[in-house]
Amino acid sequence: MYKSIMAMSYNLLKGKKGIIFGALDEKSIAWKTALRCHEEGAELVLTNAPVALRMGEINKLAEKVNAPVIGADVVNMDDLKKLFEESMKHFGGKIDFVLHSVGMSLNMRKGKHYTELDYGFTQKTLDISALSFHRVLRTAWELDAMNEWGSVIALTYIAAQRVFPDYSEMADAKALLEGITRSFGYHYALRNKVRINTVSQSPTRTTAGSGVKGFDGFITYAEKMSPLGNASAEQCADYCVTLFSDLTKMVTMQNLFHDGGFSTTGVTLAVIEAMEKAGQ
Fold this sequence. Notes:
Elements: H1 2-6, E1 17-21, H2 29-39, E2 43-47, H3 50-53, H4 57-65, H5 77-91, E3 95-100, H6 106-109, H7 119-142, E4 146-156, H8 170-192, E5 195-201, H9 215-225, H10 233-244, E6 255-258, H11 269-279
Parallel strand pairs: 1-2, 1-3, 3-4, 4-5, 5-6
Helix pairs in contact: 2-4, 2-10, 5-7, 7-8
């Protein structure tokens, strides 16, 4: 059923132009979102960090969606300025939507427990995973790069509100990311009605997500704890399309849970039964 829905296009983004940050490979939500935006009629620019571009995967996506690839380090304001300027030149005008799908935890990569963080690593994590969003928004603001009623989305996770022990300082980064969304969202709404939201997605089998300790066990738990089950990367891409479209013009400064009901479920029968079975 879902595949048949995916095959349909509603032209929700016809005539719109957007920048997609963070399409690493075919598993990534940014990759899936770029494909869906293209199917819905959008023109795109793809961007990622130079080190990610050297992997070469993004060029496959660029061919599929007929988009240029413009490298940019998200912690470098000069890179971001060049990205937005070149994007507007390519589009022949301003930008309608932006997806920020960027995150990295150096402490997790190095196996550092949360109680023993390397603070230098933590600063880099916050810089790349959260403050980069402020940089992106500030660059667009200073260049007056966004059209009225434009839409900007950053991907986040419920660890910003709840404790997930092995998510380490990425939980702090996501909390900061959501705070930036609210604060910058206020100012951008007043200036020219640009809306800014975060999408809090189910745990998803992406290259980045799979690097979290205990991920396989947790994704199984989340599936049992979500009345609708975990939302897939493809379904998240669909949701992003609606937020980029004109159908959601009055939605801004929100953290929007896209998780099959996980965020508001205390316990499910499936989890109770699994625990009872384990205790026998």
